[in-house]
Amino acid sequence: MNGFDILPLAVGHMIGLGAIGSCLGVGLLGAKYLESSARQPELMESLQNKVFLLVGVLDGAFIIATGIGLWFATANPFR
């Protein structure tokens, strides 16, 4: 077994674990945002800006990992 045989497994892990991490992060972030906005409704607008910024960063990391994984899967640079 060489590196070419386990490449699909590595790509699947890269995309799958990135998706799981991103989903958990967005879920926890949304839950904490709702909790904090229920406690202090006057801070909702400033918190909402920060939540959208952090959701974009979390999704950006997943999209980059997906792009790199698909690049490895289609144009294998190790051949």
From TrEMBL:
Molecular function via GO: lipid binding; proton transmembrane transporter activity
Q: Name one GO biological process term.
A: proton motive force-driven ATP synthesis
Protein name per its UniProtKB record: ATP synthase F(0) sector subunit c
Spell out the InterPro entries in the cross-references.
Answer: ATP_synth_csu_bac/chlpt, ATP_synth_F0_csu_DDCD_BS, ATP_synth_F0_csu_sf, ATPase_proteolipid_c-like_dom, F/V-ATP_Csub_sf
Topology in the membrane? Multi-pass membrane protein
Q: Which GO terms describe its cellular component?
A: plasma membrane; proton-transporting ATP synthase complex; proton-transporting two-sector ATPase complex, proton-transporting domain
Q: Which family does the record assign? A: Belongs to the ATPase C chain family.
**Top-level lineage group:** Bacteria
Q: Where are the transmembrane segments?
A: 6-30, 51-73
Instruction: Output the Pfam families linked to this UniProt entry.
Output: ATP-synt_C
Name the source organism.
Piscinibacter aquaticus
What keywords are annotated for this sequence in UniProt? ATP synthesis, Cell membrane, CF(0), Hydrogen ion transport, Ion transport, Lipid-binding, Membrane, Transmembrane, Transmembrane helix, Transport
Q: Where in the cell is it found?
A: Cell membrane
Residues in domain V-ATPase proteolipid subunit C-like?
9-71
